[in-house]
Each structure stands twice: as structure tokens, then as C-alpha cells.
Amino acid sequence: MGRRKKNANASDGGNGCAATETANTVAKAAAAVAPAATSEREDEVDPYTIPLHSRQAAFAILWLLVYSFAMFTLPFGAFYGTRHVLADRFQIEGFPNTCGSVLAAVVTVNVIIMLYAFRGFREVEEEDRERSKQKAK
């Protein structure tokens, strides 16, 4: 609760001083043992870290959202951007303008799908490398 003053130990007839010296010796010994206990704890799993499979799932969902957002917005941008460029720069109007714009949107969608697939293949390769490194240990 409260700390004793040194004067209080002196009034005990010397027994308090011996107890204080013993407590200091025990504290020093505990401090010397503490680094060894810390190194043993490093091998244990930290309870506050996120497991690997949970991190992978979180990143998979994140990338799915990124590619979904790209799938929704970029084809519209490609369609209307191509439509604007064909009309203003090349003076192409009507059906050819619409066909070119639709073709640009379809190509954009296919590029996004290919990027998503390549990302999935790359993640599988990275997981295989990590597993082989863990088996080598």
C-alpha cells in the first residue's frame, strides 16, 4: 500500500534493513532472469497479431472491392472518353462512334478481369514459396 521510510526501518532494530537488502537482492536476481524469459516469449505467438489466414482473407476482400470498383467505373470512363475523343478530335459521329466507344468499354472490362486473374495467380505462387520456406526450416 504505502512505502515505508528508511527511518521506520531503522527503528525496527536492524531487522528491517536486512529485509530490505534481501528484497533488493531478489529484485536484482529477477531482473537478471527477465531477459531469458523475454527470449522464451519471443518464440510464442503474440495474442495481438492477426493470423496469416485472416490477413489473407482481409486482403482478398480488399482487392475484390478495388477490382469491383474499377469494374464499375472504368468502363464508363472508357465509353464516354472514347465517345468524346472520337467526336471532337476525329469528327466521327453516329454508329461508328457508338461502336468504338462500346469496344473501348469491353476491352477495359477484359483488362480488369485479366489483372484480377493475374493477381490471384501471383498470390498462389507467393503462398507456395512461403510454404516451401517454412518446410525448409
UniProtKB/TrEMBL annotation:
Transmembrane segments: 57-80, 100-121
Top-level taxon in the UniProt lineage: Eukaryota
Keyword Endoplasmic reticulum set for record: yes
GO biological process, one term: vacuolar proton-transporting V-type ATPase complex assembly
Keywords noted in UniProt: Cytoplasmic vesicle, Endoplasmic reticulum, Membrane, Transmembrane, Transmembrane helix
Keyword Membrane: yes
InterPro entries registered for this protein in UniProt: Vma21
Cellular component GO terms held in the UniProt record: cytoplasmic vesicle; endoplasmic reticulum membrane
This protein's name: Vacuolar ATPase assembly integral membrane protein VMA21 homolog
